[in-house]
Amino acid sequence: MTFNEGMQIDTSTTSSSGGGRGPGRGIAVGGGIGGLLIVVVALFLGVDPGTVLPQQPQMDTQGVEAPGFDLSQCRTGADANAIVQCRVVATGNSVDEVWEQLLPGYTRPSIRLFSGQVDTRCGPANSAVGPFYCPADQTAYFDTDFFDVLVDQFGSSGGPFAQEYVVAHEFGHHVQNLQGVLGRAQQDPEGPTGGGVRTELQADCYAGVWAHYAAITKQDGTDVPFLEPLSDRDISDALSAASSVGDDRIQEAATGRVNPESWTHGSSEQRQKWFTVGYQTGDPNKCDTFATNNLG
């Protein structure tokens, strides 16, 4: 999917940093599309996750974080089409605009671009966890290197809409937080019908809802749609990304077997199904994964 070059990127809710270490508090719920995938795979293999996580960068003696991405590069839709960090911010702008129209009382989350390591109010995290949302500070965190991992290690297609789907999924967790349902992920968090799977599938569905409206929602101030019309390739990219991080696919690749009782995000088929439900209907009410016995 291509952004309209006439749209203006709003970076006012976005910050960026390099690496850093420090104390945090709380628990990161509504984990990202990657959602501790490396840790999960390590546990499946009986490996200490600490041995497979990247080395955490150190701060200097003054405790100052390394400089992050220069957000002044993100000005227009043309920048979003050319620079992946700008694409994340512009996608967030688009998702905000859609949900402001769909959800009364919607408030914008913050976006934090980081590399290596980042401190959050849910605790410190590093790039291995993939994109994630922290409800304690209402911030979606993205290390854009994950998009390469999604292609190289998990076999997703590499189109821009696959990346935009990831952003919309994390914003879906913010919507859940505003609705007061995100905490259900911590209740019965594992299993094929557990709270974790239902929470993640609903976020996939909410990403689909955004996709339904993305090309027809106009930006306030410029009066141009954020995005060009979706192509079949765009939808294929989103479905590929959803499929590549299904619990069953990850388990099969890591251990050669599938154990639904340890699922936390849902199968590849389920993730594709619920994105499609949201995309085809554009109705958030159709995304109530907590009220159905048929998750797919």
Summarize the structure.
This protein is α/β, with parallel strands linked by helices. Helix content is 39%, strand content 6%.
Secondary structure elements and their pairing?
Blueprint: E1 14-16, H1 37-44, H2 77-82, H3 84-102, E2 110-113, E3 117-118, E4 125-126, E5 132-134, E6 139-142, H4 146-152, H5 160-179, H6 195-214, H7 232-244, H8 247-255, H9 268-281
Parallel strand pairs: 1-2, 2-6
Antiparallel strand pairs: 3-4, 5-6
Helix pairs in contact: 1-8, 3-5, 5-6, 5-7, 6-9, 7-9
Membrane topology: Single-pass membrane protein
GO molecular function: metallopeptidase activity
Keywords: Hydrolase, Membrane, Metalloprotease, Protease, Transmembrane, Transmembrane helix
Please tell me about this protein's structure:
Helices cover 39% and strands 6% of the residues. Strands 1-2-6-5 form a four-stranded mixed sheet, with helices on one face. A two-stranded antiparallel sheet has the order 3-4. α5 crosses α7 and α6 runs parallel beside α9. The longest helix has 20 residues. It starts with 13 loop residues before the first strand and ends in a 15-residue tail after the last helix. About 13% of the residues have low confidence.
